[in-house]
Design a protein that fits this description.
The protein is of the alpha/beta class. Helix content is 30%, strand content 16%. The chain contains 13 helices and 14 strands. It is globular. The N terminus is likely disordered. One of its GO terms (biological process) is lipid metabolic process. One of its GO terms (cellular component) is lysosome. Pfam families: Alpha_L_fucos, Fucosidase_C.
Length: 450
């Protein structure tokens, strides 16, 4: 009897012990994704750095100018800056003088974002916090003389918005990275002196909910020491139980390894993936960073944003929408307008988005403009085009005698009738869409369908 009790105690202790992950993909990929990420569905991406100073071309300005030596970038510099200006000379002009983290956090909350991802360091190497590994090339030593990462994090957490940190593994022109590259990535001077110390610093200092890794594509994960870092992150870091990571940790990792998959920028799978994923998109279709010369025709409108969101969530993904602030820290009014329009839409239709799951059908069989999500026994049909006769045909749901149909944002139930073969036809409110609370994208709540 005593032996049985002792055995039971030993088993109970073993069962209660947390799992230890080993630094290999088989073990790391077995870690369950923290539930907050799938529930969140909607995030805002922020690309901000020294590239916001020239604010021309894209956030890859330095590479296009000095790496590829594109002549139009040289002409731009000659026309806008004194002779002999270097990229490093632009950093003091990155002032963030008008950066108000509380106002940003309020805007992102009103946009319906459940998480925000800030660029802590892009491929230019400039860090938006006082990185000890980036002496004199960071936002505390020059430019703003402020801890941008810390200030935004504090403001977001007051509003219970999850905080993600974008971090580029590589840097275009860092001497140690170029040395490792010339050595065929057989040496790891850059990783040991720069990349890994900065990642540890970010985690220990800011305790992020998400690490959005990038800049991995030139070298294998063994060069980056990715699996060792992730094993520490999952086992021993202060965020080991809550942190989420993406899939950009080395050549051939994208869409294969990591907590969730980005696969590629603006990725659209077209079918329901078997693994949690995220679609990152940018309001400015031509750039992730701010461009002073952007034209309205180059920006996503409200309908495009809502369409991408609905399709992404129907396929089980999260939607991360990007904006680029100015060098002073201003979010352009046109970006604010787009974010607030998204927030207004979510204030009515969020029930069909947040915490939802893919349904057995993602897109209606007979329509390219009707998409489905679900929550347990409830099905949501989100239609992006208002039918001319106010009658919406849904071919996928199977109605029953107890079926009830309502439109989110309206209180009265809608009339419906079963179709002869399958599906149902719903009589929409007898009003023109322009008189409804929203101008694009409407959600029907279906109860009692299979």
């Amino acid at each position: 009897m005593e032996a049985c009790v002792m055995l039971l105690l030993v088993f109970s202790v073993a069962a209660a012990s947390p799992q230890r992950y080993t630094p290999d993909w088989e073990s790391l990929d077995s870690r369950p994704l923290p539930g907050w990420f799938d529930a969140a569905k909607v995030g805002v991406f922020v690309h901000w750095g020294v590239f916001s100073v020239p604010a021309w071309g894209s956030e890859w300005f330095w590479w296009h100018w000095r790496g590829e030596q594109q002549p139009e970038y040289e002409r731009f510099m000659q026309a806008r800056f004194p002779p002999g200006t270097t990229y490093a000379d632009l950093a003091p002009r990155f002032t963030a003088r008008d950066f108000q983290p509380e106002a940003w956090a309020q805007l992102f909350q009103e946009a319906g974002a459940r998480y925000v991802v800030l660029t802590t360091k892009h491929h230019e190497g400039f860090t938006n916090w006082g990185s000890p590994m980036s002496w004199n090339w960071n936002s505390v030593d020059t430019g703003p003389h402020r801890d941008l990462v810390g200030e935004l994090g504090d403001a977001l957490r007051k509003r219970n918005i999850h905080y993600g940190l974008y971090h580029s593994l590589y840097e275009w022109f860092h001497p140690l990275y170029l040395l490792d590259k010339n050595n065929g990535f057989k040496s790891q001077f850059f990783v040991s002196e720069k990349t890994m110390p900065e990642l540890f610093d970010l985690v220990l200092r800011y305790k992020p909910d998400l690490i959005w890794s990038d800049g991995e594509w030139e070298a294998p994960d063994t060069y980056w020491n990715s699996t060792n870092f992730l094993a520490w992150l999952y086992n021993d870091s202060p965020v080991k139980d809550t942190v989420v990571v993406n899939d950009r940790w080395g050549i051939n990792c994208s869409c294969h390894h990591g907590g969730y998959y980005n696969c590629q920028d603006k990725y659209k799978p077209g079918t329901l993936p078997s693994h949690k994923w995220e679609m990152c998109s940018s309001i400015d279709r031509r750039s992730w960073g701010y461009r002073s010369d952007m034209q309205i025709s180059e920006l996503m409108d409200e309908t495009s944003i809502i369409t991408e969101l609905v399709q992404t969530v129907s396929y089980g993904g999260n939607y991360l929408l990007n904006i680029g602030p100015t060098k002073e820290g201003v979010i352009a009014p046109v970006f604010q307008e787009r974010l607030l329009a998204l927030g207004k839409w979510l204030s009515i239709n969020g029930e069909a988005i947040y915490e939802s799951k893919p349904w057995r059908v993602q897109k209606d069989n007979d329509s390219d403009s009707t998409w489905y999500t679900s929550k347990e026994a409830v099905v949501y049909a989100i239609f992006l085009t208002w039918p001319e006769n106010n009658m919406l045909t849904l071919s996928s749901p199977v109605p029953s005698a107890s079926t009830q149909v309502t439109m989110l944002g309206l209180s009265d139930p809608l009339k419906w009738q079963a179709l002869p073969d399958k599906g149902l036809e719903v009589a929409l409110p007898l009003t023109i869409p322009s008189l409804l609370p929203l101008q694009c994208g409407w959600s029907l709540k279906l109860v009692g369908v299979s």
